[in-house]
Amino acid sequence: MKALSKIAAGVSPSATLAVSALAKKMKAEGKDVIGFGAGMLADYLINNSLLPFLVTCLAAFLLTAFCQMFRLWIFHGASFWRLLAMALGQSVFSLPLAVPYYYISRAFHRRRALR
User: Fold this and answer.
1) What is the C-alpha separation between 40 and 16, in angstroms, rounded?
2) Collapsing DSSP states into helix, strand and coil, what is residue 12?
3) In this structure, are residues 53 and 44 in contact, taking their beta carbons and an 8 Å threshold?
4) Sign of the C-alpha dihedral computed for residues 75, 81, 82 and 85 taken in this order
5) In whole angstroms, what is the distance from residue 49 CA to residue 68 CA?
6) Contact predicate 58/95, CB 8 Å
7) Report field, pTM of the whole predicted structure over 0.90
């Protein structure tokens, strides 16, 4: 047996995919389910209104910006307050870019649902 095959044989099944499969099974049984597995949250947010989608996008932008900010603050000694202003500015300017993404994604999901 090749080395890659031995490694692949030792990999355990994905818990995320198992949760997603369980959510799909429960949904097929008619139960009201909001799955938070692979891509389920995005599907839930896209199928609802724009506001929850934008709030989630803002949270993701802020988290990303703050992670970059702390890296620069700790490893490069940059001014904390200047980095904080930059992180907030990045998040605020990135948020309008999420609006077209929302409508494009929503159209894609509706098209996929019609198949």
Assistant:
1) 11
2) coil
3) no
4) positive
5) 30
6) yes
7) no
Residue 47: both structure tokens together: 């199928």
Burial class (CB in 10 A: 0-12, 13-18, 19+), 34: exposed
Secondary structure of 33-94 as H, E, C letters: CCCCCCCHHHHHHHHCCHHHHHHHHHHHHHHHHHHHHHHHHHHHCCCHHHHHHHHHHHHHHH
Q: Average pLDDT per run of 10 along the chain, which is 115 residues long?
A: 68 73 85 67 65 77 80 81 83 81 75 65
Q: Which amino acid is at 6?
A: K
